[in-house]
């Protein structure tokens, strides 16, 4: 299976530090470059079997009321998609996670993660009819206390499942206490390593995007994708299922 996890930053396309300031207006309004960025992302992911995307705008003002999930799905040619809305900010934005799949999605569940600030989620989808696998896509909070409770929630929610791929933007590095405790106590293997730097995309120096897989899977190969369509770089995973 060719699997990808990618925080796409709602198509804003920040590719250097100065653009957090010079391009700040793109957090608030739409422009043509967002469509170009979304098209580039769709073309990049079209060769994968399953894709988890975080920070997708599902139809807010800043996206020109375009549902970015549907736009990417159509351009990339994925027949199946699961979506999750995490946070609405008035009419400005509709933050969400999505899972795109070549195989049928037979069941999906939308969970809101615990935390003092709402707006983080876990999207779980069963993929495939014969020997289905569980795909879990998530985007964690920034604070360590919230991350502890969010890892606990993930463990209680999918820790008992078989054939699981858990991926997303966890906002914490390998040496963070929440991640280390989850990795030690979970039946899942952390396949991303300390050198899988994916943030920021113009000077990768932090590994805060991660992938975990069930021990029952065969050999895996993981690498960081070399494309700059977001302030994150994508994670590319190949595994036997």
Looking at CATH, the homologous superfamily is Endonuclease/exonuclease/phosphatase
Average pLDDT level: 94
Shape: globular
Strand order of the largest sheet: 3-4-2-1-12-11
Domains counted in the coordinates: how many? Answer: 1
- Bin the helical content: 10-25%
CATH level 3 topology: Deoxyribonuclease I, Chain A
Our estimate of the beta-strand percent is 25-35%
**CATH architecture heading:** 4-Layer Sandwich
Distance, first to last CA: 7 Å
How can the largest sheet be summarized? 6 strands, mixed
* Stretches with pLDDT under 50, minimum 5 residues: none
Helix-strand pattern, N to C? EHHEHEEEEEHEHEEEE
Number of helices: 5
CATH class: Alpha Beta
Record field, number of beta strands: 12
What descriptive keywords fit this protein?
241 residues, alpha+beta, Deoxyribonuclease I, Chain A, 6-stranded mixed sheet, 5 helices, 21% helix, globular
Description:
The chain is of the alpha+beta class and about 240 residues long. The chain has one domain (about 1-240): Endonuclease/exonuclease/phosphatase (Deoxyribonuclease I, Chain A, 4-Layer Sandwich). It is about 20% helix and about 35% strand. The protein has 5 helices and 12 strands. It has helices at about 20, 30-45, 70-75, 145-160, 175-185, and strands at about 1-5, 50-55, 80-90, 95-100, 105-110, 120-125, 135-140, 165-170, 190, 210-215, 220-225, 235-240. It has a 6-stranded mixed beta sheet, with helices on one face. Strands 5-6-7-8-10-9 form a 6-stranded mixed beta sheet, with no helix packed on it. Strand 6 (about 120-125) and strand 7 (about 135-140) form a beta hairpin. The chain is globular, with a radius of gyration of 17 Å. The protein starts with a strand and ends with a strand. The mean pLDDT is about 95.
